[in-house]
Each structure stands twice: as C-alpha cells, then as structure tokens.
Fold:
Amino acid sequence: MTGRRLHPAWTVLAASFVVLLVAAGIRATPTVMIEPLGEEFGWGVDQISLAIGINLVLFGAMAPFSAALMDRFGVRRVAVVALAAMAAGSAATIAMTSLWQLDLLWGVVIGAATGCLSSPLAAIVATRWFVARRGLATGFLSAAYASGQLVFLPSLAFTTREAGWQWAAALVAVAAAVCIPVTLLLIRDHPADRGVPPFGGTRVEPPPVVPGNPFARTVLALRDAAATRIFWLLAGTFFICGATTVGIIGTHLIPAAHDHGIGEVQAASLLAVIGVFDLIGVTTSGWLTDRWDPARLLFCFYALRGLSLFFLPLVLGETALGMAAFVVVFGLDWVATVPPTIAITVSAFGRERAGVVFGWIFAAHQLGAAASAWAGGLVRASADTYVPAFLGTGLLGVAAAAMTLGMGGARRGPRIATPPATTTVT
Structure:
C-alpha cells in the first residue's frame, strides 16, 4: 500500500490468479470425460490417457519457451494469444468424432496453449512485481493453477452427466474467452508500466529490453543450468511432483473411485475439496518459504505425499473418514512444493533467468505427470486395479524426499552467468 492506495502489484496478482485458475481448469477438463468418451466412442482408458499424456507433455514443454516469450513480448500479449487458442480449441472439440481429433485438440492445441499460462507465469509475476511478500505471492498464484484443475471438476462433471461432454467443452471455451478482456484491462508487464517500484521496492526501474531470439535464449538457459547439480535435483524432484499429483491423482482418482462404486460427480467433488485445501496449503507454504529453509520444507512435503499415497488404497471406497483424511492431507500438500522450489531456483540462478530456468524445471514436472497419467491407464487396463499405480507413485514421493537432502545450502549456491540486458532510456 502507498498511503491508502492499493499497490498495482495486488491488482496484477488478482487478475493473474483468475487467468491461471481458468487455464488450469481447461487443461484438466478431459479428466471428467474419460468415462463419457469411452461410452460414446468405445475408446479405452489407455487410449484417452494417451491424449491426456500428450496434453501434459506439451503443457510442460511450452513452459520454458513461454517464459522467454513473456520476457521478449510481454506477459499480456502471450496470455491473450494463449487464451484465444484455448477458446478456439475447446469450441472445436464439440464436433469431435475421432480419436485423432482428441489427440490434436485436447492434446496438442490446448496442451500447448495452457502451457503458456502455468507455473512460469506465477514465477514471473511474483518475481517482477514483489520484493516483499514474494513467497506469499508465489504461493497464491501456485494455488490458482493447481486448484483450478480441481475446483472446476464438479461443475464440469455435472454438466457432462446432465447435458453431455460437448456442453462441458463449450463451458470452458466461454470461460477462456471471458478472461481475454480481464487480461487486457488489468495485467501489465512490469511495475514501470504503472510508474511504481515493485511492492516492497524503493525505486522504479525501467524494464529490461531482452534482445534476440527467445527460443535461442531458452535453450542457452537450459545449457547453462544443466551444468549445475542443483538444477537436476530440482528437475528430478519436480518430475516426481508431477507424477504424484496431476499424473496419478488428477487424472485417475475419478475413474478409480468409479471402480469402487463412487459416482463421477461425487469423485470430482473429492478433487474439488483437495483443491480447496490446496489453496490453504500452498499459500501457507509460500508464507513459510519467506521464513524457513526451502530445502527442509521440500523434504517434509514429499515425504508426506508419499505416505499419503500408500494410505489411499486402504481407504478408497472403504471408509468415509479415511477418505476425508486423505483428501485433507493430500490437498494441503498438493503443490506446496512450488514456492520453495521457486525460491531455490531464484537463489541459485538469479532473478533475471529464474522464469526461464523454472520453466525447464516445470517441464520436468509435466513429463512426470504425463508418464504417470499414461502408466496409470496401462496399469488399470492390465491389472484391472489402480492399487499398483498408487503404491508405485508413493515410492516415488519417498524417493523425492531423499533427493532434497542434497539441496542443503542451495540459497548460497553459485549462480549461472547471466548475459547483460539493455534497458530502455526514460
């Protein structure tokens, strides 16, 4: 606040939250369509899971390039183009009749478009607009893209059940279109565009002009980051983060619950409740990251996630109290790993490259999610149960906790070289 005036950073934060929430909800829409598409077209769970896997791979692969594009062309322009692609892709699926169209539209088009509006956007907005409360801002935006894919699901599942999956596709197309004017009116690229310093900062700095090819810059950032040990630890643990959340639970909890006699709307409501507790968990994680060692936080979060996945097969469809306990614990932990991971990334690689480097780390997250989504479908098709998939991803969570033990002192680690950027003259 400046006097009684709200700092523009909070307006940008709120608008970015809405955009991330909607983009995440659109990306997760195929989850509620697994059963309806199978019934209408005769497609198997493994076939539909492949389309979801393509979606997740491109969602992650676009992340580092979207960060470079935002540095080069601005957050607002990239967001508007991505939202328009989401609206068009979602609307086009209403006329879908073949499996290849599912792979193309929900896999390629929407996967790539939503990848432009994901975790790197949270990192860029928090890093540019906040000096104070940066961890809290990161946690808030991380909650948006994580919870969006969950809180939308009950309404989408209800719409799919009562009116058909085509209406669910139309609903998310309209949501993407509505976000376009929100982006144009409320989001700005840099604090200097509003003539203010970042929240908690002391002076207005002109935004850097990033010259050159954004794609080449992205590849160079990966080359430099890949020469460091901390990058591989962060990418490896985030690969497991994706496998243990979006990949297995976000994609397969609804059909797994259906196997145990739980209806799709009720199962989607379980994911929505996970999303509600995720808002609490990831925001708290951001607050804690401003105060505690992020590597130690990551150890706790991954260990808890692994144990909760071991617990799930014991209670799924068996006890309401046990499922309630799982939903609360897993929800609090869903993406609590994001704020400390971003904090270590900024510390290790510097503010200038943090967005692009974290984009590559997030790409690893989505590769893990895609692999887990695809493998979960294969396990279900071959074993006629999801239990081995849940136990396997639980082991991965424990392995990630062990990997964080190698991140000690990451805040004091060496930073990779950052090429100088020219600045505008004011």
About this structure: The longest helix spans residues 351-383. The first strand starts at residue 208 and ends at 209. The mean pLDDT is 83. The chain has 17 helices and two strands.
